[in-house]
Amino acid sequence: MLEKEGIEELLVRYSEGETSAEDNSIVECWMDKSEENRKLVLDVQMLSFAADMSQVASQVDKEEELTKLHLKMRGKQSNRYLTIGRWMQKAAAVLLIPVLAGWALQMYIAQETQLTPQMIEVKTSPGMTASVTLPDSSVVILNSSSTLTYSSLFIGETREVDLSGEAFFSVKKDEKKRFIVNTPHGTSVAVYGTEFNVDAYKDSKEVLATLVTGKVGFSFQRNGNTKELVMNPGQKAAYDVEQETVKLSKANIDVETSWKDGRLYFYDTPFEQVLKSLSKRYGVVFVFKKESLKKNSFTGVFVNQRLERILEHFRLASGIKFRYIEDGNIRREKQVIEVY
Questions:
Q1: What is the CATH number of the domain that holds 184?
Q2: pTM for this predicted structure
């Protein structure tokens, strides 16, 4: 990992090809951490290349500039990019020759195309959520027990990610590069720029997509063929994995997306769906002792409350009871709660 001290020297030596294999690995890992880091290294390489191609490069006292830069780097870390930026501006002032600018631009483009995209996987533990910013600045909020896989660089005509679980997407608009969310059971959602929620766990018999703004195409499987359903804002698509059928209905956006804001919002919501939401949020499994209990429905809002408190609310409101099932002979990943 790069430390605050010595960053400027290592980046310049890296751009000039004077680093060891170990140093190269350190810089490349640092580049992969953010788009800002990557662009900074490319800018340093561009100017170094131009300097090597010119006869005036000797006019630039790099040692003096690096010494000044090193002293400034001892300040706040937030100033490090600004400091290196000032060094690059001084170098650019000397190297401002049309021919050299052309060479520098070619070098920059070559560096861009030579970068190898890396696959990134983000997982959330049961009961946890996470926010992820993608390479195109789109934002994804992952719900509990979910996995998002994407490339560190979106190259080509599409921006594709893989989702297993539930996530809320706020996609940056790009008319030329469609955004595609690949989900289990041969389903996917394709957009250009919009906000939507996808609930697609591998072990679920249903894939749900709720559109908040914009327009999306929901793709699904039917008799071995891929079909697409175009959705409008305020609609919810429910795909039955076993029957291969899709039901399009009006969505309650607050109910479908409240989880991303740390709330649980139910409005005349079927009890089975209520417990499904609780299961995702708190990492537990509910088992119905009586199927007839699924016919109940509830309305209410819960904000940062313990599971036991919520279950007690249901007990007082409906008489439905809950009990934790303990089994010393079976090692379970999730706590099982019986509903009776």
A1: 2.60.120.1440
A2: 0.63
